């Protein structure tokens, strides 16, 4: 269990500095850390509170090197996320965290790295990519595979462009549907896996997206010869307390909030295939 | 320059195949290239080819009353086209080159003839085509689930 931050149960006010439109239903919020500076592990999440509406877990999507801002990317799917995505600069949201296990990037040192993201799943992986690029020399080949619904649903477009322009990293993007103007890939993200220029015996894979996608990505990675112990997934089951007390996010024997959200695929593989867990 | 047999032996589709079979298949094959925007084939036309993409990207497209929809893209190492196996041998989609495409093109009548003459060779071909078809079908099913669209996102006022 990761150690709890002080006052874990009390949301603290964080001023909205900036809001960036990513897509028609996604916004990235830049918040001032309640303490002025803060630190987190890539893969961790905060509980964000939209005053008067409610509180939800949202992954940190910022660069871990930037300690003076808390960044979250929110997709508006219900009451709380819609309220959060509609905030304006100057407004205040409640924040508690960071919580949860991070991506164990240290396991990838000296190895190849494969990042597989689907939809909003790129948000919790972005800090990992930022951290990895800061110490690029520590890793072997790096490939990022990202699937989205349509070309209009791609997050962090400018950054994707910059990543693609680098010579030390392979970036492949695919969408589920597109018109004839789209010159990129169309098809599910798992179809890109055989093309990632990484060594299956040497790679550590970090996967985040809808559960069905992670299930199929896990299976395909195994088929390609990647050991399940070398694959990490982030389980974004819904939760409430964020510290393993309320049982809301129970996933088999684990609580996503306390033991996760990042799990070793070898540990959750069987549970991912169980219905209604 | 590489011979067709060498090119085939390198392609994932033929990897590990007996060399005498590769030689026989090479007898049905030719090297082709398509410039950006060119069609490998068009919906409704006679399906008389099988393509192995060596380099480049191909879009499978369907014309709908709403316009052209790209169903899937295929690239290096992929197989394009199996309508030549199933009567009445007509293409079900358009296949358009999204840039320069280098491929090996097989004469389907020649493939069918060789498979009829030597069922073991025909079975070898099927053993390689069926997994491709199954993989493509599974990918299409996942695509149909619209995984990233659920739960439905709410359109926000522009920031
Ligand atoms: C660890 C963790 C990290 C997360 N990180 C992010 C993030 O970075 N950005 C982001 O936009 N969202 C993230 N989420 C999801 C976010 O917490 C939910 O979308 C939110 O709780 C929904 O609350 P709501 O009141 O807006 O909608 P609700 O009314 O509660 O739900 C709206 C719809 O969304 C479905 N839903 C709710 N939560 C989830 C979920 N976790 N997975 C799939 N479907 C869900 C509901 O079944 C319902 O159909 C994360 C969740 C977890 C557990």
What would you note in describing this structure?
The complex is a heterodimer of chains A (277) and B (159). Chain A is built from six helices and 15 strands. With 277 residues, chain A is α/β, with parallel strands linked by helices. Chain A has two domains: 6-99, Elongation Factor Tu (Ef-tu), domain 3 (Beta Barrel); 105-272, Rossmann fold (3-Layer(aba) Sandwich). In chain A, strands 10-9-8-7-11-12-15 form a seven-stranded mixed β-sheet, with helices on both faces. In chain A, strands 4-3-6-1-2-5 form a six-stranded antiparallel β-sheet. A two-stranded antiparallel sheet of chain A has the order 13-14. In chain A, a hairpin with a 2-residue loop joins strand 13 (250-251) and strand 14 (254-255). The longest helix of chain A is centred in the middle third of the chain and has 13 residues, at 122-134. Chain A is globular. Chain B is an alpha+beta fold and 159 residues long. Chain B has one domain (4-145): Jelly Rolls (Sandwich). Chain B is built from four helices and eight strands, in the order ααββββββββαα. Chain B has a four-stranded antiparallel β-sheet with strand order 1-8-3-6. In chain B, strands 2-7-4-5 form a four-stranded antiparallel β-sheet, with no helix packed on it. In chain B, strand 4 (58-64) and strand 5 form a beta hairpin. The longest helix of chain B is centred in the last third of the chain and has 26 residues, at 119-144. The model of chain B has no long low-confidence stretch (mean pLDDT 94). The A-B interface holds A 19-21, 23-27, 75-78, 82, 85-86, 118-120, 147-149, 153, 174, 176-180, 182-188, 190-191, 194-195, 209-210, 212-213, 216 and B 57, 59, 61, 67-73, 75-77, 98-99, 139, 142-143, 145-159. Flavin-adenine dinucleotide (FAD) binds next to strand 4, strand 5, helix 1 and helix 2 of chain A.
């Amino acid at each position: 269990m990761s150690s709890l931050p002080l006052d874990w149960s009390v949301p603290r006010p964080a001023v909205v500095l900036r809001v960036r439109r990513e897509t028609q239903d996604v916004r990235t919020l830049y918040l001032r850390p309640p303490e002025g500076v803060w630190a987190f592990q890539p893969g961790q999440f905060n509980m964000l509170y939209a005053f008067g509406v409610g509180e939800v877990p949202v992954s940190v999507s910022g660069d871990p090197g930037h300690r003076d801002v808390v960044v979250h990317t929110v997709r508006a799917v219900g009451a709380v996320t819609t309220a959060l995505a509609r905030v304006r600069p100057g407004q205040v949201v409640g924040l508690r965290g960071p919580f949860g296990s991070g991506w164990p990037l240290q396991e990838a040192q000296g190895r190849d790295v494969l990042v597989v993201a689907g939809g909003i799943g790129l948000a919790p992986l972005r800090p990992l990519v930022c951290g990895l690029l800061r110490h690029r020399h520590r890793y072997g080949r790096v490939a990022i595979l990202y699937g989205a619904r349509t070309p209009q649903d791609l997050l962090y477009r400018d950054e994707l462009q910059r990543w693609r322009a680098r010579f030390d990293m392979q970036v492949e993007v695919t969408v589920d549907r597109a018109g004839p103007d789209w010159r990129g890939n169309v098809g599910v993200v798992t179809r890109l896996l055989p093309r990632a220029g990484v060594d299956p015996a040497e790679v550590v894979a970090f996967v985040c997206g809808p559960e069905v996608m992670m299930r199929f990505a896990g299976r395909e990675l195994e088929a390609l010869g990647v050991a399940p112990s070398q694959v990490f997934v982030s389980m974004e089951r819904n939760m409430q307390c964020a510290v393993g007390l309320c049982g809301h996010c129970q996933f088999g024997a684990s609580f996503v909030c306390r033991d996760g959200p990042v799990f070793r695929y070898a540990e959750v593989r069987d549970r991912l295939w169980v219905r209604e867990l | 320059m590489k011979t067709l047999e060498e090119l085939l032996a390198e392609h994932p589709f033929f990897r590990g195949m007996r060399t005498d079979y590769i030689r026989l298949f090479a007898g049905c094959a030719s090297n082709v290239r398509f410039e950006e925007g060119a069609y490998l084939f068009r919906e409704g036309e006679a399906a008389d080819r099988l393509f192995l993409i060596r380099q480049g990207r191909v879009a499978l497209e369907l014309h709908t009353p709403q316009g052209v929809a790209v169903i899937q893209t295929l690239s290096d190492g992929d197989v394009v086209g199996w309508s030549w196996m199933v009567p009445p041998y007509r293409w079900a989609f358009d296949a358009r080159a999204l840039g320069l495409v280098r491929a090996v093109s097989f004469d389907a009548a020649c493939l069918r003839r060789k498979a009829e003459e030597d069922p073991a060779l025909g079975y070898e071909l099927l053993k390689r085509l069926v997994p491709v078809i199954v993989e493509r079908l599974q990918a299409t099913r996942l695509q149909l689930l619209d995984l990233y669209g659920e739960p439905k996102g709410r359109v926000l006022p522009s920031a």
